[in-house]
Every structure is written in C-alpha cells, then in structure tokens.
Amino acid sequence: MNNMSQKDMILKHLEDFGGITAWEAIKEYGVTRLSAKIFDLRKVYDITDEWEYGTNRYGKSCRWKKYILVGIK
Question: Closest by alpha carbon to 49, among 7, 24, 20, 72?
Fold first, then answer.
C-alpha cells in the first residue's frame, strides 16, 4: 500500500469492508481528514453515511459517522 494515495486506501477499505469511520481511517491509514476523501470519492461512487452511537472513555454519550459504499454512480 506504500504507493497508494490516501483516497485509494480509503476506497479499498470501503470495497473490502463496506464501511469506514474516522477512527478506523486514522488507526489503519493515518488519514485524519476522512470527510475530505469521502467528498472526492462521492464524485464517482455512491457513498452514504449513518450515525453510530456509543460512549467515550469518560462514559459520555457520543456519536460518529460511518461512511458506507453503495456502488458506482
């Protein structure tokens, strides 16, 4: 994956796993601006999003987006 762009890595992850969150993008690929990569990918691919809910390390409720690949436009 060394020669792949960040956008390519995100697309491959979406193809392999169906969806990605910002935390997964940071952990797996060092991508800190996932929404910008998704914005670019949406020009060609049908990508939807949904809110996921949980708690943070302090026990407070929080939510985050999960981006899901639907297909090619």
Answer: 20
Report the SS3 class of residue 11. Answer: helix
For residue 39, give both structure tokens.
């914005």
pTM above 0.70, yes or no: yes
The C-alpha R_g of the chain, in whole angstroms, comes to 13
Q: Digits of tens for pLDDT over the chain (73 positions)? A: 678 999 999 999 999 999 999 999 999 999 999 999 999 999 999 999 999 999 999 999 999 999 999 998 8
- Do 29 and 7 touch, CB atoms closer than 8 A? no
What angle (nearest 5°) sits at the alpha carbon of residue 71, between those of residues 50 and 26? 50
